[in-house]
Specification:
five-stranded parallel β-sheet, 8 helices, alpha/beta, Rossmann fold
Length: about 230
């Protein structure tokens, strides 16, 4: 399926590189991450059509990663790769939100067939495309181009500014938990990253100041809310 974006999380460098190269040759747009934390951060920042997760990984295992992904996205298909073939492990994978389970060793052709089968099952032709552009009051925000546009005015955003505004847009008129934003964009939640995020919030407020109906408010003890009325 052309232009399908795959997130591959595999800690074995040799297998990961081989799988990534094969899938790209077959027309998938594949991003390889080497551990669960890296995979979660990548998933939080960019849209993917499917996640392919190794189960046995250091730092964060595949089941834990799947649960975190499922807490943010209930629809994206997940395929687990594992050296274990026990029934209990497969059940654990499905409980974690997996759609399929492939036991190592496997052939590249089998993996491709599983990917296509799961995509056909989970992503019908009438599925809505991932959102690249958001409307925020009088502004149009494109997180791919990292641009905020109003009339003839264009504000280029940094990667962190764009990532933070995207999270706010996804939770428009809802609370964006402070801890989630910090861990997603900065990778950790501490005093210094929190102060850094406060600076970025101030910058975003400045960029949005031309529309009085748009504001980013502090929700004490919880996080921030992008209000668009």
């Amino acid at each position: 399926m052309a232009d399908t974006k795959l997130l591959l999380v595999e800690d074995d460098p040799n297998l990961g590189d081989v799988l990534c190269e094969y899938l790209n040759l077959k027309g998938y747009k594949t991003t390889l991450c080497k551990n669960g934390v890296e995979g979660y951060n990548e998933f939080s920042l960019h849209p993917y059509d499917m996640c392919i997760l190794d189960v046995m990984m250091p730092i964060m295992d595949g089941f834990t990663l799947a649960k975190k992904i499922r807490s943010e996205n209930q629809q994206v298909p997940i395929i687990f790769l594992t050296a274990k073939a026990m029934k209990e492990d497969k059940l654990e994978g499905f409980k974690a939100g997996g759609d399929d389970y492939l036991t190592k060793p496997f052939s590249m052709e089998e993996l491709q067939m599983r990917i296509d089968a799961v995509l056909r099952r989970c992503l019908p032709n009438n599925a809505e495309p991932e959102v690249d552009e958001y409307e925020v009051g009088i502004y149009k925000f494109n997180h791919i181009k990292q641009e905020l546009v109003h009339d003839a005015s264009l504000q280029k955003l940094t990667t962190k500014e764009s990532s933070l505004l995207r999270l706010l847009c996804q939770k428009k008129n809802q609370v964006l938990p402070r801890e989630h934003a910090l861990k997603t964009i900065w990778g950790e939640d501490n005093y210094f990253t929190a102060r850094s995020m406060d600076v970025f919030i101030t910058k975003l407020r400045k960029y949005l100041k031309s529309d009085e109906k748009v504001s980013i408010i502090n929700v004490h003890g919880k996080g921030y809310k992008l209000v668009d009325i």
